[in-house]
Amino acid sequence: MLVRGGTTSLGLTATVLAKMAGLGVMATTRNPDRVGMLRGNGADHVVIDNGQIATDVRKVWPGGADKVLELVGTTTLLDSLQATARHGTVAMVGMVGNKWSLDDFSPMAAIPTGVNLTTYAGGADDFMATPLQGFIDRIEAGEVVVPLGPVFHLDEIAEAHRVMEENLAGGKIVVLT
Fold first, then answer.
1. Within this chain, do residues 140 and 165 fall inside the same structural domain, yes or no?
2. Checking phi first, is residue 167 left (phi over 0); if not, alpha (psi -120 to 50) or beta?
3. In the chain, where do the E strands start and end?
4. What is residue 138's predicted lDDT score, i.e. its pLDDT?
5. What is the pLDDT of residues 133-164, one digit of tens each?
6. pLDDT 10s digits, 31-55
7. Would you say 81 and 90 are in contact if contact means Cβ atoms under 8 Å apart?
8. Can you tell me the distance from the alpha carbon of 33 to that of 38, in angstroms, rounded to the nearest whole number?
9. Domain match, 103 and 172 both
């Protein structure tokens, strides 16, 4: 599984869950200083993301990634599709790339033959259908360590937002009231 946007809190959690399921995981980061954090979180391979990593993915997995979790969004989606194996799936579930649409999108040209593209917006019904309690049980048992970032007080919300925007958290940011 390729986790595009591996240093996001969702990317870090997805890596943990994928490893628990026995998958090989490649995670991406734009920051070379985060390689150790991603490996320590379970990533088997880490790629420095320059927006075009399909070639790097295929050096490790010549056929491409079977599953791609696209957290960056439209800025890397087309490249993620090229990094995906035939009959593989790209699930676009995040938009941290600060761009909300694709310019001049041509599905027939952009989506390789045999590659599936899906999205997940995380509505309430979808959330309630997740195996959340099992995940919580594993956290409580110490089987899963949730990567936490810095903790802020509510009066520090501007700083918390800056840390999030600059991708400096290294885990889930916590704000206390």
1. no
2. left
3. 2-4, 26-29, 45-48, 65-70, 84-92, 116-119, 148-153, 172-176
4. 80
5. 777 888 888 877 777 889 999 999 999 988 88
6. 999 999 899 989 999 999 998 999 9
7. yes
8. 10
9. no
What are the tokens at 136? 């919580």
Query: 164 and 86 in one domain?
Result: no
What pLDDT sits at residue 101?
92
Helix H or strand E encompassing 99: none
* Claim to verify: residue 91 and residue 171 sit in the same structural domain: no
Helix (H) or strand (E) holding 110: helix 107-110
| CA dist., res. 129 & res. 144, Å (int) | 20
Of 60, 103, 106, 120, nearest in space to 85 by CA: 60
Closest CA to 155 of 126, 133, 131, 176: 176
Rounded Cα gap, residues 10 and 157, in angstroms: 20
pTM: 0.82
Helix (H, G, I), strand (E, B) or coil at 15: helix
What distance, in Å, lies between the first and last C-alpha atoms of the chain? 37
